[in-house]
């Protein structure tokens, strides 16, 4: 039996883990064991074998302040002294109302209503249900189809899957069972690339042809994450927003990965100077501590939803508005706003740009790109994840490659030395063996 000592003197049974614990995007019969973690502090993860790794993933892009953050831990302890949870139906509480106040103040001004949920995928489900119920409230129920672009990713729940890339995404097996969204080509790549008039014409024609049946357009602003870590010109968002307004289609911005500073702006829609009708938030909302998400919408959306036959919005998660998660989110947002986060993200961008540049000269590398606190090395061929991960770990860092991509989204508090070690580890790992 393979076991290793955990920090609380309990053994991590990796044999049991392999045979009974199903991990994300993994086989029920994994070839490789998962690495057992003892603790995490600052920007480092410590394994039970004593190895310390600089975390280049920020726990799937969420732990923007790093780990064991004093202000967040204090908020946890204080909230536990009063209540960890109470149902949100018919009741309310300070942590939730304060969080919603913060989110309304932070996001573009027209977004005035906040619906709290458990996870990013659920926030997308909520957004899609809002859009459908909105058109029932407008007495136009035929507007029930969603429109989006390829290379997008919006989550793994059923509605969210239907607007993820149907060919190159992770959900093609379910395509026959999913509602059929209308997919457009992805915005041409390149944050500073000139606008492609042919793409604009094709998108405009699709809106013109299908507008009578379209409920909402959904997109990840500026950065397409799990669909390929693609960056595109923010002006495309302004163009799409105009089409939505022209053809009476709601605009949903999925800011789950991009929100709270990751792109260099507090929210990625700010690069385009637009406001969506509905916005989804998650991941960094609690600084990577507990699962929590939010869907914000305009007063028009909220009031029209409630003019539908139901008279109310038909959604209500059991743990909606969890006081503990809300208290943590309040602490995380306060910590972010009190920090020089813009300067930190800009500094990360500069170090990533310089540190990953040598990868451009490596055979097998197709592209290197950086935006905000995101660095991407795209290979010409699919990556052997286990092999590349082991090579990165041998140089003291942790990343989670996928497809052809070795990328980093580190905590904002990472030091320059740690960041340089992280980029060095990636450059060494992608060199031909």
Overview of the molecule:
With 433 residues, this protein is α/β, with parallel strands linked by helices. It contains 13 helices and 18 strands. The protein has helices spanning 14-20, 58-61, 70-80, 94-106, 120-137, 158-162, 197-210, 235-246, 299-305, 323-338, 341-356, 385-393, 416-430, and strands at 3-5, 11-13, 37-41, 44-47, 52-55, 111-117, 145-149, 182-184, 214-219, 223-224, 230-231, 250-254, 278-281, 293-298, 365-371, 374-379, 397-398, 405-408. The strands form five sheets. Strands 6-14-13-12-9-7-8 form a seven-stranded mixed beta sheet, sandwiched between helices. A hairpin with a 5-residue loop joins strand 10 and strand 11. Helix 5 packs across helix 9 (299-305) and helix 12 packs across helix 13 (416-430). The longest helix is centred in the N-terminal third of the chain and has 18 residues, at 120-137. The radius of gyration is 22 Å and the shape is globular. It starts with a strand and ends with a helix.
List keywords for this structure.
single chain; 433 residues; alpha/beta; seven-stranded mixed β-sheet; 18% strand
List segments where confidence is low: pLDDT < 50 over at least 5 consecutive residues.
none
Distance between the termini: 33 Å
Question: Average pLDDT, to the nearest integer?
Answer: 95
State the helicity in percent bands: 25-40%
Structural class: alpha/beta
Strand portion, in percent?
A: 15-25%
Gyration radius, in Å: 22 Å
The order of strands across the largest sheet is: 6-14-13-12-9-7-8
Characterize the main sheet: 7 strands, mixed
Oligomer: single chain
Number of helices: 13
The number of distinct β-strands equals 18
> Tell me, what's the shape?
globular
InterPro entries: Aminotrans_3, Aminotrans_3_PPA_site, BioA, PyrdxlP-dep_Trfase, PyrdxlP-dep_Trfase_major, PyrdxlP-dep_Trfase_small
Pathway: Cofactor biosynthesis; biotin biosynthesis; 7,8-diaminononanoate from 8-amino-7-oxononanoate (SAM route): step 1/1
Function: Catalyzes the transfer of the alpha-amino group from S-adenosyl-L-methionine (SAM) to 7-keto-8-aminopelargonic acid (KAPA) to form 7,8-diaminopelargonic acid (DAPA). It is the only aminotransferase known to utilize SAM as an amino donor.
Protein name: Adenosylmethionine-8-amino-7-oxononanoate aminotransferase
């Amino acid at each position: 039996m393979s076991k290793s000592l955990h920090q609380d003197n309990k053994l991590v049974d990796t044999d049991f883990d392999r045979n009974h614990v199903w991990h994300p995007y993994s086989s029920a019969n994994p070839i490789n064991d998962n690495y057992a973690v003892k603790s995490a502090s600052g920007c480092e993860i410590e394994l039970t074998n004593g190895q310390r790794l600089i975390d280049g993933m920020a726990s799937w892009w969420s732990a923007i302040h790093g780990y064991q953050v004093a202000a967040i831990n204090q908020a946890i302890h204080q909230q536990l002294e009063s209540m960890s949870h109470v149902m949100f139906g018919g009741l309310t509480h300070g942590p939730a109302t304060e969080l919603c106040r913060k989110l309304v103040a932070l996001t573009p001004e027209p977004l005035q209503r906040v619906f709290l949920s458990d996870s990013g995928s659920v926030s997308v489900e909520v957004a899609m249900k809002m859009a459908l119920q909105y058109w029932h409230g407008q007495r136009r129920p035929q507007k029930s189809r969603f429109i989006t672009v390829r290379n997008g990713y919006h989550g793994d729940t059923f509605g969210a899957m239907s607007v993820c890339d149907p060919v190159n995404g992770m959900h093609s097996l379910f395509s026959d069972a999913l509602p059929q969204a209308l997919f457009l080509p992805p915005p041409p790549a390149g944050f500073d690339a000139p606008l492609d008039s042919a793409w604009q014409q094709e998108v405009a024609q699709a809106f013109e042809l299908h507008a009578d049946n379209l409920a909402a357009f959904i997109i990840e602003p500026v950065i397409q994450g799990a669909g390929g870590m693609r960056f595109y010109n923010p002006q495309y968002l302004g163009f799409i927003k105009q089409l939505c307004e022209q053809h009476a289609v709601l605009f949903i911005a999925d800011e789950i990965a991009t929100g709270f500073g990751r792109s260099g702006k507090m929210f990625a829609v700010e690069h385009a100077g637009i406001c969506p009708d509905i916005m989804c938030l998650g991941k960094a909302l609690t600084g990577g501590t507990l699962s929590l998400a939010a869907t914000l919408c305009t007063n028009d959306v909220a009031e029209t939803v409630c003019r539908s036959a139901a008279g109310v919005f038909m959604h209500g998660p059991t743990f909606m508005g969890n006081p503990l998660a809300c208290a943590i989110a309040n602490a995380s947002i306060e910590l972010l706003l009190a920090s020089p986060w813009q300067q930190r993200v800009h500094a990360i961008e500069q170090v990533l740009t310089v540190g990953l540049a040598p990868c451009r000269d490596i055979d097998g590398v197709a592209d290197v790109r950086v935006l905000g606190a995101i660095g991407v090395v795209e290979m010409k061929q699919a990556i052997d994840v286990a092999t590349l991960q082991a090579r990165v770990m041998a140089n003291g860092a942790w990343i989670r490659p996928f497809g052809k991509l070795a990328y980093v989204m580190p905590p904002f508090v990472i030091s320059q030395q740690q960041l340089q070690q992280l980029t060095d580890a990636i450059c060494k790992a992608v060199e031909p063996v």
